[in-house]
Write a structure and sequence with these properties.
Blueprint: H1 17-26, E1 30-34, H2 38-47, E2 51-54, H3 58-61, H4 73-84, E3 91-95, H5 105-117, E4 123-125, H6 133-141, E5 146-151, H7 157-160, H8 170-186, E6 190-194, H9 198-207, E7 212-215, E8 223-226, H10 228-231, H11 249-265
Parallel strand pairs: 1-2, 1-8, 2-3, 3-4, 4-5, 5-6, 6-7, 7-8
Helix pairs in contact: 2-4, 5-6
Length: about 280
């Protein structure tokens, strides 16, 4: 980008689904992060991040669950609305949570419509391959952009039984490539590929026209996404090798809370200047 991070969002060109395709065509990598609240989303947008995902990872990093499965549609609508109202430039994508799109395409469309109409997102993300393509087509045909998600799909954790790298065997790798082609044919504007061998992710990115945004899938993708709480060092229960910690916010917060405790106990806070 020609503008430096911190430039007001109003002076930056709005990111759209077409923007992401253009970025891939030009070889410009896509930077994406998650957000779940108004304050964090505003800061991420101000920094110039291209895509903000309101992820169902809110279940683990905010709600305290062990998996993403428990988060509800109503909760996702709430968090997506908080994020959408803070963002001016980035493309905002909302995760459709577990069992909000698996029952049938009509129910999936209704929930995608609620995400767009009530929460203000500009696209939705679904996990799965060939089996969900009829649902993807139904949503796209109604005018709502869809982002796919392949590889490790956290909503299916009870099926996998592990968070280990996916598609290491030839059969699963071949299926992932078929799934990726099918999703592109169904009309997705982009895909997340999570925790698969770097060579496989690069092969998929090279063979498709739509952008591939990787997480734990190597540097050959068309962009990268991380959970913001992970890369900030705010959520410390999860420390996979693919996360680069750009800050140690948890330690900073602990220090600040401890100093406040110390000052209150010592009656050093509030001072005369901090009182009326």
């Amino acid at each position: 980008m020609s503008l430096e991070p911190g430039t007001p969002s109003s002076k930056r060109k709005k990111v759209t689904t077409n923007s992401l395709r253009s970025m891939k065509a030009k070889g410009e990598h896509i930077a994406a992060l998650t957000a779940y609240d108004h304050l964090m989303a505003g800061l991420i947008d101000k920094a110039g991040i291209d895509l903000i995902l309101v992820g169902d990872s809110v279940a683990t990093v905010v709600q305290g669950h062990d998996t993403t499965v428990p988060v509800t549609m109503e909760q996702m609508l709430y968090h997506a609305g908080l994020v959408s109202r803070a963002v001016e430039r980035a493309l905002v994508v909302g995760d459709l949570p577990f069992m909000s799109y698996q029952v049938n395409p009509d129910e999936a469309l209704r929930n995608a419509g609620r995400m767009a109409k009530d929460a203000g997102v500009e696209a939705v993300k679904l996990e799965g391959g060939e089996v969900i393509c009829p649902t993807v087509r139904r949503i796209v045909d109604a005018g709502i952009p869809v982002m796919g998600h392949l590889g490790l799909t956290p909503q299916s954790i009870h099926k996998f039984g592990t968070y280990q790298v996916r598609a290491t065997a030839d059969e699963e790798a071949d299926q992932l490539k078929r799934d990726a082609r099918s999703l592109q044919d169904a009309g997705v504007f982009a895909m997340v590929i999570e925790k698969v061998p770097a060579g496989l992710a690069t092969e998929v990115a090279d063979m498709l026209e739509v952008p591939i945004v990787g997480i734990g899938a190597g540097g050959g993708c068309d962009g990268q996404i991380l959970v913001s709480h992970d890369m900030l060092g705010l959520y410390t229960k999860f420390n996979p090798r693919f996360v680069r910690r750009y800050a140690g916010i948890a330690e900073t917060m602990l220090g600040a809370f401890g100093k406040f405790l110390e000052d209150v106990k010592a009656r050093d806070f509030p001072s005369e200047d901090e009182s009326y």
